[in-house]
Write a structure and sequence with these properties.
With 369 residues, the protein is of the alpha+beta class. The chain has 11 helices and 18 strands. The radius of gyration is 24 Å and the shape is elongated. The protein binds S-adenosylmethionine. S-adenosylmethionine binds next to β1 and β2. The site of S-adenosylmethionine (SAM) has 20 residues, from β1 and β2.
Amino acid sequence: MANESLSKAKEAKNDEFYTQYHDIEKEISAYLEYNPDVFRGKTVLLPCDDPEWSNFTKYFAQNFENFGLKKLISTSYAPESKRYKFGYVPTLFETEAPHFDADKSKTHGKIFILDHDVTGDGKINVEDLQWQYLEGDGDFRSQEICNLRDQADFIITNPPFSLFRQFLAWAMDVDKKFLIVGNKNAVTYKEVFPLIKDNKLWSGRTEWAGGMWFETKYEDVDRVINGVKMKNVPSIWFTNIDHGRRHQPLALMTMSDNLKFSKHKELKGKDSYYHYDNYDAIEVPYTDAIPCDYEGTMGVPISFLDKYCPEQFVIIGMAKRGAGDPALKSKVYTKEDYPNYSDLNATPVIITDGVPKNTYPRILIRKKQ
Ligand SMILES: C[S@@+](CC[C@H](N)C(=O)[O-])C[C@H]1O[C@@H](n2cnc3c(N)ncnc32)[C@H](O)[C@@H]1O
């Protein structure tokens, strides 16, 4: 019970990580590089934000004119509705506003809108953001925020980690472009992987390695940089906005060159790649060891998705219990044959020295014809 409430508290804290400005800038630059007019004349909605804290609103407001935006809308969630409450104190920005309301400050979300020059300085920027309290608490599932979603062209945010599945479904429910942060493991969720397989969702531009550093208000931190508390999370960007990296094929060696020259001891000097015992596919333990001339099915690490180019490979499925398609299996282990049959059925299996051994979960791919 104590463990359960600890993990709930941890999960609730994870909902309150804030994205760094340069991470947003780096990611968005990739879409602009691919299409400089990607945001021109468009409405961008930043839900699940906290504009007084968060960098999404700051970044888009500062670049409003550069990007040629039509409208920027960001919304925040009421402090009293948050799962993790941390002694809320409204900011000076809010308390000094003529329409500050001490009660609504706790129970209502806020909406920030930027669409014209309010200050009269001839520019549209962060100074022209206008805000008011929402009717409700700013829950992205509320009708009020759904209405904002429906008028937006782009939905961009780092949503609460505990509601990632729901948020993705909410964004995919409507035909909109979106860019959201989520845990790397989410690629294997049964609600997420099929979208990746069908090229309706893909990894953003930022590399997966090293995870992402978020600002946090809590004490259990991984680093403090210039007084800012930071936490490292294995997060990645998920999107349906096109970027150039996903159209760059991987530079790969042939199978025989991999077996001769690979930097990986599992392959160098070997006669062949392992063929799985329970899938009709070969085991490729590293993305950079994918043989460019192999025509059959290959099992590759999940991190392959960071480098996936749909013009180069086709994704066939996931070889992992739960997320995978059982029809892809060529063999199912039974308790009559193996006492550890259940473990063996969880992922692809290779036979080494006559003993079946699980590999990590794999994505099954093929070279595009
Ligand atoms: C991971 S934080 C990210 C904040 C901000 N988007 C950023 O990246 O800096 C998620 C935010 O969503 C808020 N939130 C939690 N549940 C929500 C819900 N159901 N609807 C809207 N926002 C929610 C959290 O309170 C938190 O402020």
